[in-house]
Amino acid sequence: MSRDWWIDEGDFAGAEHLDAAYVAGYEAKAQFDPTDDIVALEALGMGPGSTVVDLGAGTGVFAFAAAATGADVFAVDVSPAMTAVMRQRCRDEDIDNVTVTEAGLLSYEHEGPLADFVFSRNALHQLPDFWKVIALRRVAALIKPGATFRLRDLAYDLEPDAVEATIDDWLANAWSDPTTGYVAEDLAEHLRTEYSTFTWLLEPMLERVGFEILDRTPPPTLYPCYTLRRQSHHVQLSPAGGGAASQSRRAASRSPG
Q: 3-class SS at 211?
């Protein structure tokens, strides 16, 4: 069947995430500390013998922290600049339990046994809602029934009549230094060009593709974190994984590579 209608995720990644100069300062700007996620997932059994897939891994902050628990980690990102950083770290630190793959939520093809854990942070919002559903169904297909999906993303836990006041407040309280956080211009650009959705649209998507929402913590207005369990019913994708292979940009390598 023709997949001419399938999108190329590189077109939706955000130009800055493909820019090596921007990526060099990405960790300082994002200020992401994966400690809470690692603790939560270790409590659910992540560790030696576990298979973990990090979708939208960026420069690998979570992926390398997960690898330090002894898990085998598949770090997936659509940006060549991001994957280059991860591969270099694998070489520099002789890390052999992180596999780096250049692909996205719609194009990653997982090989081997189904994953025990999937983690994704700030990747789903790059896709319009139609494609979010397709992407989430693909996540459900690569994880074991009963296994855990930890999802962090920018989503709006708002009623429609609260949108303008909330967004105005969000922008007014943004960082002032663009090297150490997201300034108002960054947030406004996100609103104009990316696809964060409302939680009351996202949560039915998650349930529809086969996830049970176990927890949503903390409950902020703009940045929820979900702990999800893959339900027992089977999700099967087409042999092509649902996406055009020519668009996958897949370049997997077991480090050091």
A: strand
Give me the residue label for tokens 């793959």. Answer: 101
Peptide bond into 218 cis (omega under 30): yes
Q: Which H, E and C letters describe 147-196, residue by residue?
A: EEEEEECCCECCCHHHHHHHHHHHHHCCECCCCCCCEHHHHHHHHHHCCC
The residue type of 60 is: G
Exposed / middle / buried, residue 160 (Cβ in 10 Å: 0-12, 13-18, 19+)? exposed
Query: What is the pTM for the complete model shown?
Result: 0.88
pLDDT above 90: percentage of residues in the chain: 76
Instruction: Report how far apart, in Å, the C-alpha atoms of 214 and of each of 6, 11, 162, 232 are.
Output: 32, 33, 27, 15
Say whether the peptide bond before residue 256 is cis (omega within 30 degrees of 0). Answer: yes
